[in-house]
Automatic annotation (TrEMBL):
Signal peptide feature range: none
Sorted UniProt keywords: Membrane, Transmembrane, Transmembrane helix
Organism annotation: Muricoccus vinaceus
Record flagged with keyword Transmembrane helix: yes
PANTHER family to which the protein is assigned, alphabetical: LIPOPROTEIN-RELATED, QUINOL:CYTOCHROME C OXIDOREDUCTASE MEMBRANE PROTEIN
Keyword Transmembrane: yes
Record-given protein name: DUF3341 domain-containing protein
Length: 179
């Protein structure tokens, strides 16, 4: 029976500090394709992995500006050119009347773009990931910390990588197979 190729190796730790030390050791050894999983945020591990903030805020601001411009432009065009109505002697292009809808559309576009941008940048929705089936991985949301070394990294060699991870004193090292 043919087994699928290895997707990577997973090391399990009982403490966040041990996982963070393992991340630092892996980065120092030259690993670049790795992931860390923990039941709560571990900023030191994220910093050691070189994770930086995603540009979701910039995406939201850009979408808000586009939405506001479209909303204000549409309101102005409709009020001035398509249906000019003199109400109480105000001019057709009374821009303060356009502000509430402009603001609401900008917020709507920013929220939608932030959601879509976050999903796209995180590669979601991904309902199935081989790491989910690693031995003991269900405890990543409870009390365990995991370091995953990807087989896509140029340094990956199944035996040498397993030896490297065992040298970091994890609870266990398990192979993750592509499904």
């Amino acid at each position: 029976m043919n087994q699928p190729p290895p997707f990577g190796l997973m090391a399990e730790f009982t403490e966040a500090d041990a996982m963070t030390a393992a991340v630092r050791a892996a980065r120092a050894a030259g690993w670049r394709r790795m992931e860390a999983y923990s039941p709560f945020p571990v900023p030191e591990a994220a910093e050691a992995m070189g994770v930086r903030a995603a540009p979701v805020g910039l995406i939201a601001i850009g979408a808000a500006a586009v939405g506001a411009a479209l909303s204000a432009g549409a309101a102005w065009y409709i009020s001035v050119h398509l249906y000019p109505v003199n109400v109480g002697g105000r001019p057709p292009n009374a821009w303060p009347a356009f502000l509430p809808t402009t603001y609401l559309v900008a917020v709507l576009w920013a929220c939608a773009a932030a959601l879509i941008g976050m999903l796209a940048l995180n590669g979601l929705p991904r309902l199935n990931h081989p790491a989910f089936f690693a031995r003991g991985f269900h405890r990543a949301s409870e009390d365990r910390f995991f370091l995953f070394l990807s087989a896509e990294d140029p340094l990956f060699d199944a035996m040498a990588s397993a030896r490297f991870l065992r040298g970091l004193a994890p609870l266990r090292v398990s192979e993750v197979r592509a499904s």
